[in-house]
Design a protein that fits this description.
77% helix, mainly alpha, 316 residues
Length: 316
């Protein structure tokens, strides 16, 4: 009887282990996949950061215009997907149009750069009001050609803003890197503060993971970076305060840029704009915050903060 009880217990244990074995293997496979994804994300981030930072710091503005122009064309290809435009011929035509716009902006910088940056800023201010009113996002499988015009404005203005800051002497490249640092710090601070204290959702229909605690963390991080920029530039007390305000506003618009791309992706039932960058999605997924933040940053640095006249936007 004792042997039957022992055998029965061992049999039940073996049966339980057999049932759990697939779950254990699945859990191990999930962990391995998560580690692999993390490694891809890290390596992609490292080489992309080295490439961009090196280009910003080492290249003259004219060469940087070509370098960033290639990035803009990649982003334009992805933008077609967000607009529901999938025909390769149409996408190719859009890339040619974007290239022509960038060439025109470079040729007539004095006339067009300030106007384009102001138009882009007004667009993002409109979106910052509009996005909070969205209560539902129906999937839209039909093409939306009007979004191609929006893409022309947003992507060309981002290119223009970065170049307009880069050509400022003597700190242009450093100021571009400061913008990237500001956005990265705000993004990281939002992530960690949101995970630690996040309760109230910021825009649940657009991005369920974002919280108001994350926003406060982002603004705090942006303020710290802005204070560092003011110290580095040796600004007067008044201009230092303006730099602090500018940094906070830039961080706020960077969140709007993130939410706007989330809106476009949800309309298409997409997780990423593409699979170009392993572990990160598409290029647009990496620069969505920059597209909204860069025009305000450029206008603020060259006009409101340092006292430079607006004409210096085109002093190359």
């Amino acid at each position: 009887m004792i042997m039957r009880t022992v055998n029965g217990g061992l049999g039940a244990l073996a049966s339980s282990l057999n049932r759990r074995a697939p779950l254990v293997r699945t859990h191990m496979a999930d962990n391995a996949m998560a580690k692999s994804t993390l490694h891809r994300r890290i390596w992609t981030a490292l080489w992309l950061a080295a490439l961009v930072l090196g280009a910003v710091w080492l290249l003259p503005t004219a060469a940087l215009a070509l370098f960033l122009g290639a990035f803009v064309l990649i982003a334009a290809w992805e933008w077609c997907g967000l607009a529901g435009i999938n025909a390769p011929l149409v996408r190719g035509g859009y890339l040619l149009l974007m290239a022509a716009v960038l060439l025109g902006l470079w040729r007539y910088a004095a006339q067009l750069w300030p106007l384009l940056l102001v138009m882009s800023l007004l667009w993002w201010l409109l979106q910052s009001w509009r996005l909070w009113r969205i209560q539902a996002i129906p999937i839209n499988p039909t093409p939306q050609p009007h979004l191609l015009l929006v893409g022309l404005l947003i992507l060309s203005a981002t290119w223009t803003a970065v170049l307009s800051v880069h050509q400022l002497t003597p700190h242009g490249p450093g100021l571009v890197l400061a913008l990237l640092l500001l956005i990265a710090t705000a993004d990281s601070a939002a992530y960690f503060s949101g995970r630690r204290w996040g309760r109230t959702k910021l825009a649940p229909h657009l991005s369920p993971g974002k919280t108001w605690a994350g926003v406060y963390g982002a603004l705090t991080g942006a303020a710290l970076v802005s204070a560092s920029i003011a110290f580095w530039l040796d600004l007067s007390p008044l201009h230092s305060v303006a730099m602090l305000v500018l940094g906070v506003l830039v961080a706020m618009l960077s969140i709007v840029g993130d939410l706007y791309e989330s809106l476009l992706k949800r309309r298409r039932h997409l997780k990423d704009s593409s699979q170009l960058l392993p572990g990160h999605g598409g290029l647009l997924d990496r620069i969505d915050s920059l597209t909204a933040a860069a025009p305000l940053y450029a206008l603020g640095l060259t006009w409101a903060v340092t006292g430079f006249p607006l004409e210096l936007l085109t002093d190359r």
